[in-house]
Design a protein that fits this description.
This protein is α/β, with parallel strands linked by helices and 187 residues long. The protein has helices spanning 4-10, 13-18, 37-44, 102-106, 139-146; strands at residues 27-31, 48-53, 67-71, 86-92, 107-118, 149-159, 165-174.
Length: 187
């Protein structure tokens, strides 16, 4: 298992920024987890994690009491996660629109969706360049509105690190953010 220092370095700044919004109870889904950089970060932050991907070779040997790893075809004819509930869902560098609307259904009340992936214009900088894998302008905002998610933060921008890219980022909650007191403004 990676140490917390390494996991912190490897995790997306967006995920690191909003990890405190994730409810401590329940399970966090690391969807299309890849080599597990966010899985490691979430475990080190004290969460229970279900890490899923078609290729789990890079993470399947990991042993941790709060980790479950599952090989799943996320782009097959049926959605393999139907009926499961999560306190948060983390998605980075992955987009498969046919099952996108399933994500809010799987969030528990107060559950958080952290999403970060490539956006239109990314082809200028390399792959992915296929529009099927690039978010349209405002797509995550529209998606949130259509699915009753409250947007806590959103970005649609160019980044230059770790490599030049156009990306969209979203932090949204299903219902009310639990465990947080709204800011009080005084005159």
């Amino acid at each position: 298992m990676s140490n917390s220092h390494t996991a912190l370095e490897e995790a997306s700044p967006w995920i690191r920024r909003f990890v405190s919004a994730i409810p401590k109870n329940g399970v966090v889904l690391d969807l299309a987890c890849g080599a597990g950089r966010h899985t490691h970060f979430l475990l080190n932050a004290g969460f229970t994690v279900l890490a899923v991907d078609q290729n789990i070779d890079a993470i399947c040997q990991e042993k941790h009491p709060r980790l479950e790893v599952a090989r799943m075809n996320l782009e097959g004819e049926t959605w393999p996660l139907t009926g499961m509930d999560f306190s948060a869902i983390v998605v980075t560098n992955y987009l498969f629109r046919p099952y996108l609307a399933e994500l809010p259904k799987m969030l528990t009340a107060g559950g958080v969706l952290l999403f970060e992936t490539f956006a239109q214009g990314n082809g200028e900088f390399g792959k992915p360049s296929n529009p099927d894998f690039l978010l349209k302008t405002g797509e995550l905002l529209s998606f949130s509105a259509q699915n009753g998610l409250k947007v806590l933060a959103y970005e649609d921008l160019y980044i230059d690190h770790p490599k030049p890219a156009m990306i969209q980022r979203l932090c949204a909650v299903k219902g009310v953010l639990q465990g947080h007191i709204p800011l009080q403004f005084r005159a």
